[in-house]
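Render this sequence as a predicted structure.
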Amino acid sequence: KGGFSFGTQVELYLPALSGYFPMSLSGQRMARYDYYAGFNSKGWDIRVGSLFEQFGSGLILRTYEDRTLGVNNALKGARVAYTFGDYLTIKGLYGLVRQDFDYNYNTSSSVAAADLSFSISNAAKLDNIDLSVEGSVVNKYESLSGEATSPLTTGYSARLNFGTHGFILKGEYM
């Protein structure tokens, strides 16, 4: 309504079967929940709560849910994106990492990321051709107990997309 959106998802599981989940979860009832609030208007796309996002092909950052596999690696945090016309999109996000059925509040594992997509063909008003360049940077911080310093892992990605007359070529370097 008026650019605002809200959603939730709650899953309840019976006690785990032996061999399907870590033994620390066996004999317990498990619940998993996701929720979000968002706003989308005039080029802005803002979301807080459970985040599902993919940059490029997903090799540098991909959060998703697959109920049949029991996978849900959503981030809990905030995502802000802005689109300039139809040629430039900038995204930034920050969130806590999910581990099994909960987020890592105590271990301080987090992800901060940014993504840029620039459509050369839309900016230059080229017909019959689709040409864009994209790039991403992703930082993952993970606090380790007993370590003097905690590791910060940084990944970079550069992408080039080209398409014309039904032919599509995509390349990505990380």
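Summary. The mean pLDDT is 84. The CA atoms of residues 8 and 16 lie 24 Å apart.
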